[in-house]
Design a protein that fits this description.
Blueprint lengths: L1 H13 L3 E3 L16 H4 L5 E6 L11 E4 L2 H14 L5 H12 L2 H27 L4 E2 L7 E5 L6 H10 L5 E2 L13 E5 L8 H17 L1
Parallel strand pairs: 1-2
Antiparallel strand pairs: 2-3, 4-5, 5-7, 6-7
Helix pairs in contact: 5-7, 6-7
Amino acid sequence: MERRLALIEAASNHDFLILEDDYEHELNFLGAQHPTLKALDPCGRVIHVGSLTKPLFPGIRLGFIAADRAVIKELRALRRLMYRHPSALAQRAMALFLAEGHYDAHIRRHRRAMSEKWHMMLREIDRQLPDCQATATTGGSGIWMALPEGMDAGDVFTAAEARGVLVENGTLHYLRPNPPRNQLRLGFGAIDLAKIAPGIGELKRAIDAVRSA
């Protein structure tokens, strides 16, 4: 919280804006939910953008922006030049869905389901992959994991894919030269809870196959 307030104060003191894109801020599984920067902003310095395609469904093609009135006015003018308006019916239906509290109820259900998966992922990594290190998080829909030193994430990706398990080669996410080559990102948002333990088991066998190659 201290860092968030300091950032907002710096934006005011040094005359800059903050673009906040924190689509997973509702998926916090430890402690109280974190407020957005926009909720703490007293001077209109934060522009908060959000998408409804990830927490609801991609086909809805709707999102939202919370910002100062002057910013919204300019964005509306620009949007008319750049993009055709989505269905007014879909916008009205979503406005009612939000206003009547159904979205909040949906997010609470979604958070409970994701929390179960998050805990299961961490337990199974600890149990089945004791020589790998999961990065501590407070939520989200993915977990970063370091393979044993010297193991190449690309080799593990290929071996896991052959076993029907898809992971992300973490090396691709680094901009700096000579990034670590033993990082994997494991997404769990779309995985059934019952498939997590068997999936980590297959990943273990893929790691063992690379190690013994």
